[in-house]
Design brief:
Layout (H helix, E strand, L loop, with lengths): L1 H38 L15 E9 L7 E9 L5 E7 L3 E12 L2 E7 L2 E3 L4 E4 L4 E8 L8 E8 L4 E9 L16
Parallel strand pairs: 1-10
Antiparallel strand pairs: 1-2, 2-7, 2-8, 3-6, 3-9, 4-5, 4-8, 9-10
The structure holds copper (II) ion (CU).
Length: 185
Amino acid sequence: MGAVARRETGSEMNQVSKSVLGAFASLLLSSAAFSAQHAAGQATPVAELPVSVAVTASDCWIRQIPAPAPSGGFLVFHNQADQAAVLTGVSSPDYADVMMHETTHENGMSKMSMVHQVSVPAGGQLDFKPGSYHLMLEQARDGLKVGDHVAVDFLLADGHRVSAQCEIKSPKAMSGMGHMQHMKH
Ligand SMILES: [Cu+2]
């Protein structure tokens, strides 16, 4: 009995240290890849791109879900230009991974998929809202709490950036969507 208990404890410890090491290794890898790209001039970090004058974001908030489930993010884009603006990427210094998602409904079932391009109509607006387009944010930095504001940067196809300040809200915040559906990913 004693031996079994020790072995279980040991394997739990092992799993914890493996996942910590794994996270550290992927951090190292991604920062190495990042520096390499930057040095080669192939990609400029989104946060260093010029800010778009035509496209702005407002009303951004994040529904914080306890890890490991991802959190959902919602906001409104406004486009004053006379042509559509295309969002092609998103990132945040406070989350290891941010994606644009779309919820679609088919035969009474709803499903989410990652989208790589989202168009904001000319002279119009586009809502990222529950049941539609939304952000999926994974691996928040330690210590993020309800009431904090975090920066989320969007890349536009024209090489500009749209910056949003998003308020962290409790999972109980009204939303109309159980973002727990993300657990299925
Ligand atoms: Cu989603």
